[in-house]
Amino acid sequence: MSADLAKLNAARAALDFIKDGMVVGLGTGSTSAHFVRLLGERVREGLRVKGVPTSEATKQLAEQVGVPLLEISQVTSIDVDVDGADEIDPAFRLVKGGGGALLREKIVAAASKEMVTIADETKWVDTLGAFPLPVEVTRFGFNLTLERVHQVMRDTGCAGDKVVLRVAGKSNEPVITDGGNYVLDAHAERLCDPEAIAFALSQIPGVVEHGLFIGLSRTVILGKAKGAEVKRL
Ligand code: 5RP
């Protein structure tokens, strides 16, 4: 099965949640990009919505496909946020941030009446953690913060405790987020207690945000080769 087709099918099913006049959070990543392009088609057909992008990349795409946008500073409430995920467990806890947009994604999700998570069905897992947990950190003192994230992995009984600075490109330069920060990837292998890890990470000075989204999404759309399955918590 093509993962991209499944992502497209999930994105298409999310259009059912969009009504005329809504303010819509626009997620980041390849699945969200499908949704933004489909939303652009609907806008060209006459749908009136305003989008709130969660990254500079999504902002650029939304502008290209003609989705009218609002600045986050113009927004007090968002009707529905549609965003992807790297992992989703049966309690609808998410790991996000594979694309490094976790901070803006979480701000937009938390400001939304509803977060609709769209993903291909391979993202549905029994236990979170096979996908490394992204943690956005300040550049200042990142090596000290990394040590403390490492300690949290050990203290909370994760199967793995390797934590690495995310780098990219031929020269392995650190990835810089839209907010000007670094991203650490915590290779936990298995997150036994996501709530405890989320709390402990949020207590570390230098951690700007972590990629555990807990209690934010009650609707998950899993795209398949044919169609999509809508799950509600
Ligand atoms: C970006 C994210 C993405 O939603 C997540 O990485 C999923 O990406 P994709 O839709 O490309 O599989 O959290 O920060």
Tell me the layout of helices and strands.
Blueprint: H1 3-14, E1 23-26, H2 30-44, E2 50-53, H3 56-65, E3 78-83, E4 87-88, E5 94-95, H4 102-110, E6 112-120, E7 133-137, H5 142-155, E8 162-165, E9 167-168, E10 173-174, E11 182-187, H6 194-202, E12 207-210, E13 212-213, E14 219-223, E15 228-232
Parallel strand pairs: 1-2, 1-3, 3-6, 6-14
Antiparallel strand pairs: 4-5, 5-13, 7-11, 7-12, 8-11, 9-10, 14-15
The structure holds ribulose-5-phosphate.
Ribulose-5-phosphate (5RP) binds next to helix 2 and helix 4.
Secondary structure class reads alpha/beta
The number of distinct structural domains comes to: 2
Provide the succession of SSEs.
HEHEHEEEHEEHEEEEHEEEE
Helix content: 25-40%
**Biggest pleated-sheet summary:** 6 strands, mixed
Number-wise, the strands total 15
How far do the termini sit from each other? 27 Å
The CATH architecture assignment of the largest domain turns out to be: 3-Layer(aba) Sandwich
Q: Order of strands across the biggest sheet?
A: 2-1-3-6-14-15
Bound molecules: ribulose-5-phosphate
Shape: globular
User: Please, how many helices?
Assistant: 6
CATH structural class of the largest domain = Alpha Beta
- What are the segments in which pLDDT stays under 50 over at least 5 consecutive residues? none
| Rg, alpha carbons | 17 Å
If you average the pLDDT, what whole number results?
97
CATH-defined topology of the largest domain: Rossmann fold
β-sheet strand percentage: 25-35%
What report would you give on this structure?
The protein has 233 residues and is an alpha/beta fold. The chain has two domains: 3-125 and 215-232, Rossmann fold; 133-210, ACT domain (Alpha-Beta Plaits), CATH 3.30.70. It is 30% helix and 27% strand. The protein has six helices and 15 strands. The strands form four sheets. It has a six-stranded mixed β-sheet with strand order 2-1-3-6-14-15. A four-stranded antiparallel β-sheet has the order 8-11-7-12. Strands 4-5-13 form a three-stranded antiparallel β-sheet, with no helix packed on it. Helix 2 (30-44) runs parallel beside helix 3 (56-65). The longest helix has 15 residues, at 30-44. The two termini are 27 Å apart. The model has no long low-confidence stretch (mean pLDDT 97). The chain binds ribulose-5-phosphate. The site of ribulose-5-phosphate has 18 residues, from helix 2 and helix 4. Ribulose-5-phosphate is lined by residues 27-32, 83-86, 96-102, 105.
